[in-house]
Design goal:
The chain is mainly α. The termini are far apart. Helices cover 74% and strands 0% of the residues. Helix 17 packs antiparallel against helix 18. The protein contains 23 helices and no strands.
């Protein structure tokens, strides 16, 4: 049975990253959309949110706002026959554009179709497939989940969603999707095997057990061990955490505008690592608040960060236990996506708190990691005022300047990092000092600044003679002196 998009060939194409200027412009468009929703101008909000989705299809924030707005717009209206014909036209345009790899046109057509019917499963699946081609896991899953909201028993959507949920480590929901496939198709062997396999994987992941515990062999005589199958059957205390959850749910039911209750319930779900439940309750809180509540916004960002890191953890575990080109590719992709998610969150937070050097530091680190060197430099420079991160910032600036071949600036920052590390009493300061000395020594050698190079590498050798290839580099400096 086909479980992948039919037009998929080879590895997915990475979504093109946005420039800082484009991201800033889109954020303004997005914020304007929020103001339109608050005024119930859903049509104009749709235009603005659709623009965000088309230009940045990897942003889960934009996608959620786009679909939430459409849900409100269509709350009391169902598409008529004429709308159905228009949807087919947009679907056709989506399919043709996707086949050509024209993603802006594909997402434009998809948004136009969803504007007519936000729960159109065919369109949602096609957009999920487009996300898969671009390697956008989180948005791909969101389109599929949205399709399930209108047709929860659809075996095709459930199968697609189950595969994606399993890849992203969301075992409970993956199992639930496979169970719905099995209900619709009782003879589906793939569903039966997947449910059994995922039940064990979930137990291992949640319990932090080793995969060897998958074995059905009995433990050796006298050996105290455990068996995953047995653990999976153990009952969990059904009352754990339930009273508080119920109280908060009752509080929300009694007063649907009680934002504090929503946030407390979201915090409870976060503590229990129930990210989907936290995300759902925060979405309801956002609607109740009419958008723009800072606490709700930051909690939603926390969920995004937590989800991204959890996906990386699952991918790391899979890559370690089942090493292959596919698991390695997925791990690399999810690490990049996690960095992009963190980058977007810290960019938004830095915009909201422009005086925070800590947020500047966090943003600068993500920009540098994403290869956006010229954008990272001014952000890291603005973070130099944070005394706790000063050495790391200077070292990072040195690496950025070296990357763009501004060697004098790079060396200057490395040397400032050496001085700062020497004054730093933090736990990581000794290792940072060694790295700063090494970077300064290597770069100074390349610049034929042999006295400076020798001084830095000699200082490093005095601290740790076995550090990387410091001994060979000191010999090289001596050789350069002899040949000059």
């Amino acid at each position: 049975m086909t479980t992948e998009p039919e037009n998929r060939v080879g590895a997915p194409t990475a979504a093109k990253p946005l420039s800082a200027a484009a991201r800033h412009r889109l954020q303004k468009v997005f914020e304007h959309g929020g103001r339109c929703v608050a005024k119930k101008d859903y049509d104009y909000a749709n235009q603005l949110y659709a623009q965000c989705v088309v230009e940045d299809p990897a942003s889960i924030t934009y996608l959620q706002a786009f679909l939430d707005n459409l849900e409100q717009k269509h709350a009391e209206k169902k598409p008529g026959k004429i709308a159905g014909l228009k949807i087919k036209s947009h679907r056709s345009a989506l399919t043709k554009a996707a086949a050509k790899g024209d993603w802006p046109a594909a997402f434009t057509a998809g948004c136009q179709a969803l504007a007519l019917s936000p729960y159109d499963a065919t369109t949602l699946i096609a957009l999920a497939d487009a996300c898969q081609e671009l390697g956008i896991d989180e948005c791909q899953l969101y389109y599929l989940k949205w399709a399930l909201r209108s047709d929860a028993k659809n075996p095709t959507v459930n199968r697609r969603a189950a595969l994606q949920l399993a890849r992203m480590g969301q075992f409970d929901q993956a199992i639930a999707c496979w169970q719905r496939v099995a209900e619709a198709k009782p003879d589906d062997e793939e569903a039966r095997q997947a449910i059994a396999r995922l039940s064990v994987e979930k137990t291992i992941h949640v319990g932090g057990y080793d995969s060897k515990d998958l074995s059905n062999e009995e433990p050796a005589d006298g050996e105290k061990s455990f068996n995953v199958s047995r653990l999976a059957k153990q009952e969990v205390d059904p009352d754990e955490g339930v009273p508080l959850e119920e109280r908060l749910q009752n509080a929300i039911a009694a007063d649907p505008t009680d934002i504090e209750a929503y946030v407390s319930l979201a915090d409870l779900y976060l503590q229990k690592n129930q990210l989907d439940e936290a995300e759902d309750i925060l979405s309801r809180a956002n609607q109740a608040a009419g958008g723009g509540n800072l606490t709700v916004t930051e909690r939603s960002e926390d969920v995004q960060l937590r989800r991204a890191r959890r996906q990386v953890e699952v991918a790391e575990k899979q890559a370690a236990e089942q090493p292959s080109e596919e698991t390695s590719r997925l791990l690399t992709q999810l690490r990049q996506q996690a960095n992009q998610t963190e980058l977007e969150v810290y960019a938004a937070r830095s915009d909201r708190q422009p005086g925070s050097t800590r947020l500047k530091f966090e943003l600068g680190v993500r920009l540098k990691k994403a290869g956006k060197i010229r954008e990272a430099i001014p952000v890291l420079q603005a973070a130099r005022g944070d005394s706790r991160q000063k050495t790391t910032v200077l070292l990072g600036l040195g690496e950025c300047f070296q990357k763009i071949e501004q060697y004098k600036l790079a060396l200057s920052n490395y040397e400032q990092a050496v001085v700062s590390a020497g004054e730093d009493s933090g736990e990581s300061a000794p290792e940072t000092l060694k790295l700063a000395l090494y970077r300064a020594g290597v770069l100074a050698t390349g610049m034929r600044e042999l006295d400076r190079a020798e001084r830095h590498l000699t200082d490093l050798a005095g601290i740790d003679f076995g550090y990387r290839d410091v001994a060979e580099r000191l010999d090289k400096i001596a050789s350069l002196r002899d040949s000059s």
